[in-house]
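User: Here's a chain of 149 residues. Predict its fold as tokens.
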Amino acid sequence: MPRRTALVVVVPEAQPHVLITHVPAHVTILVPFVPLDEIDVDALRELVASQAAFDFVLDRVEHWEGGIVWLHPEPSEPFSRLIRAVWERWPECPPYEGTHEIVIPHLTVSEEPVEVDPPLPIAARADEVTLIEEEEPGVWVERMRFPLA
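Assistant: Prediction complete.
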């Protein structure tokens, strides 16, 4: 069975405040994505390069039912544009396997209900999209980076 892959924007500025340790702090662009050996790398590079790099801040802590704690990126629209662009190019890979009608860009801090108090806002820049692969259950590793315009 092929390993799972995902496209993310890594946010190292948030890493000290993220309680999840199996993957770097990130905003997800698309998960699950195409298996590594089936990815059209040139098409992915071209698509990502057609999108502009952008600055953003993580401006507030949010909670979802079930306990997930996340940080809200502002502006969110550039992330939404990236998500739509990749999904339109690879329609067989709907975000989160199509389980959500609306995909909300976010940076997960914890999958458990915890109180967090990071020093907000956290300023960051999205200048590349990273392809990560689940090497073993729950362990994700970086495979490739694709620069934004």
